[in-house]
Amino acid sequence: MKFLKRMVCLLLVLLIAAVMEPVCFALSEKPVLHFDADGDFVILHLTDWHCDYPLPEVHKQLVLESVAEAKPDLVVLGGDLSEAATEDQPAAIREICELFVQAEIPFVITFGNHDYMHGYSIDEMFAFYKEYGGEFFIGTDEEPELFGCGTCSIPV
User: Fold this and answer.
1) Alpha carbons 139 and 137: distance in angstroms, whole number
2) Residues 115 and 149: beta-carbon distance below 8 Å
3) Eight-state DSSP code of residue 77
4) What pLDDT sits at residue 2?
5) In a 3-state reduction of DSSP, which class is residue 45?
6) What is the pLDDT at residue 71?
7) CA distance 129 to 125
8) Model confidence over 99-135: pLDDT tens digits?
9) Using an 8 Å Cβ cutoff, are 42 and 156 in contact?
């Protein structure tokens, strides 16, 4: 009888854990990245758009079509995305982030050499990405003593 009680308790714990996993994921701050069943993990790297603000509709469409075709698990933005004027830079970053939030794809940014030329520090722009990307922006600056902003590792 004691063995049966232990088995029932163990099964209940496993059942609760199985039910709670999606709930915990929904409540977690960052998405958990996983290899798929075939052992694949797809990264889409997009860089050097050098677009004005607002983004041209054809560019938005191209990005969304690329995301739809590649079905990435993570998008890495390589920087130099916006050539917006200083006063438009926050709105430009919001517009960029909205593409990946809309597609519900986790993304990070590594800044390019032209990102230093838009009237905001890299730390300030990183904060814009964090704010506008919400739960889908998974970049961190976990190594602030390293040169640059956004230097991090992302476990898969």
Assistant:
1) 6
2) no
3) E
4) 54
5) strand
6) 97
7) 6
8) 999 999 999 999 988 888 888 998 899 999 999 999 9
9) no
Query: For residue range 24-74, what is the model confidence (pLDDT) as tens digits?
Result: 333 345 568 999 999 999 999 999 999 999 999 999 999 999 999 999 999
Where do the H-state alpha helices sit in the chain? 2-27, 57-70, 89-103, 122-133
* Neighbour tally for 24: CB within 10 Å: 10
Note the residue count of the chain. Answer: 156
- With a CB cutoff of 8 Å and minimum separation 6, the contacts of 57 are none
- Model-level pTM? 0.77
Answer yes or no: are the C-beta atoms of 89 and 118 closer than 8 Å. Answer: yes
Instruction: Write the secondary structure of 16-34 as one string of H (helix), E (strand) and C (coil).
Output: HHHHHHHHHHHHCCCCCCC
| Angle formed by the axes of helices 122-133 and 89-103, nearest 10° | 40
Give the relative orientation of helices 89-103 and 57-70 as an angle to the nearest 10 degrees. 30
